């Protein structure tokens, strides 16, 4: 497993886009958006917090997760299937599930790195707060990351080839970004749209993240939706996934 992970890491780093979008892009957005004066003032819509304190870093962490889950992961696995890598591995003592596990762990590590850089840069450059409830933050991050990566495996399962995988992933990713409040804050969404957001995994993820920034333990309802999403997407991925 360790050797496979090292190989996958080297292959991952060869593609500059794998690093640029999930790691550098969120950081650049934090720095750029964080310079807007109005976003550095307390906002009643965010319980008196500034937009840059919790909302901005939360959205950027989510952007990194969705980018990895719906573009990098499906593309890599669909490419391996298309090239026959998984089929050939199935004839060796190294089961393809080890490759799958390495891919999941690699993307999770990259997402964690992106989250850490976003928080540190936001604090040093923009003056953002850091999560006051650290253990709650880690729990929410791991649950949200697992659910989104499992969703990405569903995309990888149904994508016919490597070219189609990122396209399908993008078609799913942008509506999820919208429901998470990337362009329209959830607080001003119509009631029906906010209800959909509440059950979309990304909505509870954003809310739970903001709770940890405020020093509160994430609400059980938010954790329950993420756990349910993880169970649902994992079951679908197992049912639909094809090694060849």
TrEMBL record:
It is a multi-pass membrane protein. Its main location: membrane. The chain crosses the membrane at residues 12-36, 56-78, 99-122, 134-158, 165-184, 220-241. InterPro entries: ABC-2_transporter, ABC2_TM, ABC2_TM_bact-type, ABC_2_transport. The keyword Cell membrane applies. Pfam families: ABC2_membrane. This is Transport permease protein. It comes from Actinocorallia aurantiaca.
